[in-house]
Structures
1.
Amino acid sequence: MISQWQLRAAFAARLSEMYGREVPAYTTLVDVSREVNEGVLRARGADAERLGSIGRVTSERHGAIRVGTPGELRQVARIFGALGMRPVGFYDLREAAASAVPVVSTAFRPVDGEELARNPFRVFTSLLTPADPRFFDAGLRSRLETFLAGRELFPPELLALADRAEAERELPDAEAERFLQLAVGAFELSTEPIDKAWYETLERVSAVAADIGGVRSTHINHLTPRVLDIDELYRRMTERGIEMIDTIQGPPAWKGPDVLLRQTSFRALAEPRSLRLADGSVTRGALRVRFGEVEARGIALTREGRALYDRLLGLVDRRASRQPDADRGELARAVWEENLPGTERELAARGLGYFTYHVVPGRARDGSRPPGSVGELVEQGWVRAEPLVYEDFLPRSAAGIFQSNLSGEGSRDNEREGAAYDTEWLSGAMGREVLDPFDLYEQQRNESLAAVARQLGTDTPLVRPVT
């Protein structure tokens, strides 16, 4: 029998192999990521594995896919449910992007700490929003919804196997192999000719809309390895002649703790595709829709920490607008150094970052009584704090990656009111609860504090870190 986590690991590995065949520059990205990680490990030793073992970091991937309807999203949720992955977080890229990106998104991932350690594969999944009149007028919406209703992305056999794997949390060897074949095949780039006129109609609205609703299939849009030094990777990829997007999205490089998520990518490549013309003939063309992303993950921030992060982004924007010739990275670095704690301990003490807590073996042998607060326990050496890796995404960064790889700005009528989409709507559309990532981090932290209290024999619950 093949367990869910083994299915997840095998799916991630096969998807990576398939994507490497389709997009050779991705293989280069993986190779360079591995070289950089090995270099960081040699230079920093155990400290390099502070946010995950080198084995986890090397095998770690997140994918990205795009679907067109709530029905397609429900089917995707069944496939990822088979792999022990649940929808976490709601991301509205319509509001985060300056250009036309008419999608809302969630990320499917494991949620249990042990499952994340085994294989933390994630898939950032975006859903087209045809009901938003800022992008689609009534006529185009009707045509788009009719087109989407007439396609089948996932074969019934795949969905039946997915339901069985989710219910039983495993599959027999033969069924597991069939599931993997069908699942990977569902995300391969189709060779079916694309209706050129229809694709271009949607592309005038948004290249993302065309990639979702202009074809009769879906595909893996990008696959992302994790790297320990994203600035060094950016430099090495550029040296190899691979065109990278202009910036690294997310927090700046600075001397303090790495937090949240930094991302960059090589630019979307012109890939040969078959295009069907109005007279029915087929010609060869090229479309730019897929790219190679890479990420560096830091410490998960609490709600208070995330609010501070968002305020700092706004401060950087204001300073950049006043100093248009200044280097934005330098401005951001200065803002970070002025406002963020420079150490993990201070980040924890101010309640800005998520940590788990673990009793230090042998500390209780001197017969003294442990203090009652987490800060004192850490300060006096009773307990060590281990940072929780940020497992999720940033809407502004995701939108920045999308925008940097678009063929054009698209069109958006800001005079019209946008359609309302939120976490509750997405949960209902999917038939599954979209989990709050903050709740998941808090659960891991609180479980560790409860374990510390039991081991130290304290009568009352430990006081959590406060802001």
2.
Amino acid sequence: MNLETEKTMSRSELSTASKRTPELEELLIDAEADDEQVQQSHPLVKRPWLLLLGLILVALNLRPALSSMAPLLSEVSRSLGLSAAQAGLLTTLPVLCLGLFAPLAPILARRFGAERVVLGILLTLAGGIILRSNFGEIGLFAGSVLGGASIGIVGVLLPGIVKRDFAKHAGTMTGVYTMALCLGAAMAAGSTVPLSEHFGNSWAMGLGFWVIPALVAAVFWLPQVGSKHGAHNVAYRVRGLLRDPLAWQVTLYMGLQSSLAYIVFGWLPSILIGRGLTPTQAGLVLSGSVIIQLASSLAAPWLATRGKDQRLAIVVVMALTLAGLFGCLYAPIEGLWGWAILLGLGQGGTFSLALTLIVLRSRDSHVAANLSSMSQGFGYTLASMGPFAVGVVHDWTGGWNALGWIFGIIGAGAILAGLGAGRALYVQVQSEKL
């Protein structure tokens, strides 16, 4: 094992190493000095609530730009004369951008610092929301691209920040962050149609409203930009992720479970409208399902980290997700809310476990940031194929019944990938100081 690889080991692993070489002794001394430096120069150590509040507000803004469109998709399509293919593209583009722009996150973070990048991207997200809701068809697609790119970059950076500043409570903090993310999605899914009706049946006002939470989050995140993070500001390059099978298993699980999530965000209201619900009712069902995710998104990582690994938890939450999806698609409409609740319990757990795996499979925050970039970059690119496939199959068949095959294939793939990603191992990489 070379010296740079040893630097990725935790302090406890170094201190209990069987052979205390001079190099290891020097590493332990440096680690203790780093801790003292962080305690002296990191004001958030004394005010962790400020960072926690900032993380929650940022997470609240990582889904409204996506979930607010689904309940209004039919109205937007009629207003702008969009074809079925264009409507399908509108649901696919933001998810595709989550993946395509995710690799920029660690590059920007090394150049400007993660805190500055998060602030700048929140403002970019606000710009995308304004563009999407005010400039017709061109603005709609351009704003969707900008919004998806912004969410993709911020979403990559937050797990690394959690690993860095809340390392001893990574599972719980990931659950809190995911819970806030689900709350934002639920708020947007349930209130966008009523907001548009309140503002004179204007879908543009309904979509544009979500610029306000983005700007509020930017204001509360601003103190982080001026904070010094001591030794954590050192830039590292992580090598070997693309050759590591475990990293690919984490990536596939992230992508496949996300594919089901974005099918729900993009198409569930349309599916339910096709089954006889009104747009408002369909939006409320989606919102209710996402609200249920609050419970499982917080509980699943906590429970999963109490066992020897996360494989059983992954199978359970994915089984709940598939049961809820099939119920919403095929079961009698009278029992719809029961299936929506089941779907919410499953999907809250699948996503929070995907983020937890990034943290648990990484030895330190540098590896976590790069694994987050890989899993979300490749994963969301893969995930975008799910909503696109739903649109294509719906056009081919003229109905929704054939979607069960898509759900089943994606769900089975997610379980297989999760059985590998859920093992209690670390990705094997090298960290090099730049």
3.
Amino acid sequence: MQNILVIAYSQSGQLTEILQNFCKPFTDSTIEWVHVYPETPFPFPWNGPAFFNAMPETVLEKPVPIQPLKFERDHYDLIIFGYQPWFLSPSLPASAILQDESFRKLMKDTNIVSILGCRNMWINSQEAVKKQIASAGGKLIGNVPLIDKTSNLISVITILHWMLTGQKTRKWGIFPKPGVSDQDIENVAHFGKLLQEKIQANDVQNFQTELISKGGVNIPISILFIESRAKKLFLIWANLIMKKTANGGNRNFWINFFKYYLLFALFIVSPIVLTIYHIFVRPFSGGHIKRELAYYRGTQLR
């Protein structure tokens, strides 16, 4: 019998539903659920100022205070870590979990699977998670990212509708439903069953390879291109805002400046740059793209 720890922060409830379905096949295991709560809760639905105000600390991975974590055991056979990316980085509560000393002790020499529920960009945040797990001595054996599979710009509109209203519904009755699809949330149980089978066969090191072969790690090439550049820009903005407001500067001014920059970049600059990329760059970058996709689908650090 396996002793499994499932730990996560779920703001909207979608991630909790994903984790519950993933864990359904583990009927013969003891599962301990730890739901993480920030000392100052983040609002849901979000309001615009609160959402954008979280950007600098999120990108710089500065943990927020969370309520003390309590674990029933000193060791687990498997840890399932669920999280969401914010601004191409682990969410503030996720960073707090990964930097919590009691949790870091549990990660040492323990098999870990990360599970994400997100819009469509997760590779930069997962790189940060990989580094935190490795620095704690954990063994990341799998990563299961569930994404919104609609187009990038459409999903921006639908996710904003969900975040700002709290309603996971079709905006105006014409846009797709936001977030991870109901079908993908239900079907994640198949990946849980695959992990269970690998555990029983003492073959967990091949879990990610088989997960990939079954289509469990989806990275659109356009998203790969955007993420390879966007995180650097986010870091520049985060450091700029922290510097400009360190001595009492007007944080709201700089946060609003970033907000309008981001919207301009998403809806104006991004489509133009992607068109140029697909016409002039992508046809000559097949080998590089293949290597990048193989790396980001895996669990190892460079």
4.
Amino acid sequence: MMRSAVILVIYSLILVSCKEDIKTPDVQSIVDSSISASGGDVYRNSIVSFKFRGKAYKAVRSNNRYVLNRFFADSLGGFCDELTNDGFSRYINQEYYPLADSLSDKYRQSVNSVHYFAMLPYGLNDRAVNKKYEGTTTIKNQRYERIKVSFNAEGGGDDFDDVFIYWINKETKFVDYLAYEYHTDGGGKRFREAFNPRLVNGIRFVDYNNLKPIDKERPLDSLEIDFKKGELKLLSKIELEEIEVIPLTECSNC
């Protein structure tokens, strides 16, 4: 009887020890590694420009300050939308053009969205971001860490209630897939598959196959399964053109 009790105690201690050794990976380290592999310090201090769907975009980042621009023209003249740490402004023919709050919010979100997706995974360390580790999975014979992202109401923008999932490749550290649920314009869910990766002066850029579920009521967590089964519908392609990157250390006349 005594021998059985001793064995039971030892077995219990082993179980406790094993549980202590099985630790959830540090989500912050995973994201930091992905940012480092994809652009690192060049993200934080650089001038990035590209074209997307007929409009020109430019981002200047330096020492936690940023200026995000969108340029286009129509019958009224030349437009410049500008988003900075201090807010959003619109200029027409280089003159400030006041907007109603509703329009200002709409254009600000549009400008921010394009720059955000173009520079992923850089934005995953914004102060309003909450990151949660959701385990590992396999897609197309590659192993991935799943990271779920939500946002604080303060500092998270008007769409702070959006939710994202990122699949970070365990070997390369790159974000190869992402999914998100949004609530503006009637809401919906999207799954994006990265393709055409290229390195431009220190920053990795990708294009995306932009897919949606056939049933819009499908839970966000189910989109990975639907993708593996080929049950997502291709909605559009997200393609960046004429990308240029100038690290600020190389910029003498900016």
